[in-house]
Automatic annotation (TrEMBL):
<keyword id="KW-0408">Iron</keyword>
<dbReference type="InterPro" id="IPR050231">
    <property type="entry name" value="Iron_ascorbate_oxido_reductase"/>
</dbReference>
<dbReference type="GO" id="GO:0051213">
    <property type="term" value="F:dioxygenase activity"/>
</dbReference>
<dbReference type="Pfam" id="PF14226">
    <property type="entry name" value="DIOX_N"/>
</dbReference>
<keyword id="KW-0560">Oxidoreductase</keyword>
<dbReference type="InterPro" id="IPR005123">
    <property type="entry name" value="Oxoglu/Fe-dep_dioxygenase_dom"/>
</dbReference>
<protein>
    <submittedName>
        <fullName>2-oxoglutarate/Fe(II)-dependent dioxygenase</fullName>
    </submittedName>
</protein>
<dbReference type="GO" id="GO:0046872">
    <property type="term" value="F:metal ion binding"/>
</dbReference>
<dbReference type="InterPro" id="IPR026992">
    <property type="entry name" value="DIOX_N"/>
</dbReference>
<feature type="domain" description="Fe2OG dioxygenase">
    <location>
        <begin position="184"/>
        <end position="301"/>
    </location>
</feature>
<keyword id="KW-0479">Metal-binding</keyword>
<dbReference type="InterPro" id="IPR044861">
    <property type="entry name" value="IPNS-like_FE2OG_OXY"/>
</dbReference>
<keyword id="KW-0223">Dioxygenase</keyword>
<comment type="similarity">
    <text>Belongs to the iron/ascorbate-dependent oxidoreductase family.</text>
</comment>
<dbReference type="Pfam" id="PF03171">
    <property type="entry name" value="2OG-FeII_Oxy"/>
</dbReference>
């Protein structure tokens, strides 16, 4: 198996296990961690428990001003409310660099059908966004949230690294994320799940469509900003059991002022599986008459970073991301051929 094949296989297997489409419980399995309370040791203890058992947590007391998050959502909404052609013109897509505007295009190996969403992907690599910023004011709001997210993710990585990846020098992980460097891979993604009328929704649900099909993230860490009242995100509960009958989906509800954080495949690999990259998805609600907006920051090591671990073959972070992008491309190609 290639280095990323196992991670891709987990997603593809959902098509055949009952877990793929089951509905979610709302039982508070995802812990809320307040970064402003307690000593570093106490915080690490909570982060460690969440990162090794569920792979998801909601973070409060994180220090990112709400005004900065609100501004980014305002710009996002104004962008997505424009006609399709304008969005395509303002931010042309280039999948080879993971940048630009995408419309109902991403096909997950877990579903084989396109996510019911549009997104604007900003990859923080030198020149990648040239000619792809919708406007100066959009850029300024995006850069502010990108910088704040980058700092917060690095803080979390510094707290987790001594336990998770003890075989590398201090701050190896956080120092491998350099915004706007020549081989930077950190990404901030603006997402919009558009409303659908009742009849369309019914048909889509019947055919197995999702707002975002079940998947794990490719990153080290993902910080996800959600809006209260715009629910739908769910992650797998009790994922470590290995027993499908004990696994189920649980809600990751938007909490006012909180950021949902999850461990991605890259950090699971760095840590030889100690930290858990959990499956998650965004449900297409039966009443999909309202939009859902979210913003995801993916902390991804620079392309040239070599991920060396005790139990996995070494791979550069660049090759790792590329293989994951290709798996989604291949799912899309296969879908086209079947049509
Ligand atoms: O919109 C969301 O809540 C989830 C998005 C997500 O999981 C992703 O883009 O990887
Ligand atoms: Fe995700």
């Amino acid at each position: 198996m290639g280095a990323a094949d196992q991670d891709i296989a987990v997603e593809a297997s959902l098509k055949t296990t009952g877990l793929g489409s089951a509905s979610a419980k709302d039982d508070g399995v995802v812990p809320v961690i307040d970064l402003s309370q307690g000593t570093d040791e106490e915080i690490v203890e909570q982060l460690w428990k969440a990162a090794t058992q569920v792979g998801f947590f909601s973070l409060t007391g994180h220090g990112i001003p709400q005004s900065l998050i609100d501004k980014a959502f305002e710009e996002s909404q104004a962008f997505f409310e424009q006609p399709l052609e304008d969005k395509q013109k303002q931010s042309p897509v280039d999948m080879s660099i993971n940048c630009g505007f995408e419309y109902f295009a991403q096909v997950r190996p877990s579903t084989g059908v396109a996510d019911q969403k549009e997104s604007l992907q900003v990859t923080a690599r030198e020149k990648a966004m040239d000619g792809r910023w919708p406007s100066d004011h959009f850029e300024s709001a995006a850069q502010d949230l990108l910088n704040a997210s980058h700092a917060l993710a690095n803080k979390l990585l510094d707290l987790l690294q001594p336990l998770a990846v003890p075989h590398v020098a201090p701050q190896t992980l956080s120092k491998s994320h350099n915004l706007w460097s020549l081989d930077g891979q950190c990404t901030i993604r603006f997402l919009h799940y558009p409303p659908q009328d009742a009849e369309t929704t019914k048909a889509l649900l019947k055919e197995g469509y999702w707002r975002a099909g079940p998947h794990t993230d490719w990153a080290n860490l993902t910080l996800l900003y959600q809006r209260p009242g715009q629910a739908g995100l769910e992650c797998c509960a009790n994922p470590r059991t290995g027993n499908p009958s004990e696994m189920y989906w649980t809600k990751v509800n938007p909490v006012e002022g909180a950021i949902a954080v999850n461990i991605g495949d890259m950090l699971a690999r760095w840590s030889d599986g100690k930290l858990y990259s959990n499956l998650h998805r965004v449900r297409l609600p039966e009443d999909a008459s309202k939009s859902r907006y979210s913003i995801a920051y993916f902390a991804q090591s620079d392309k040239s970073t070599l991920i060396e671990t005790e139990n996995n073959p070494p791979i550069t972070a660049g090759d790792y991301i590329l293989s994951r992008i290709q798996s989604n491309f291949e799912a899309a190609k296969k879908k086209k051929q079947e049509a």
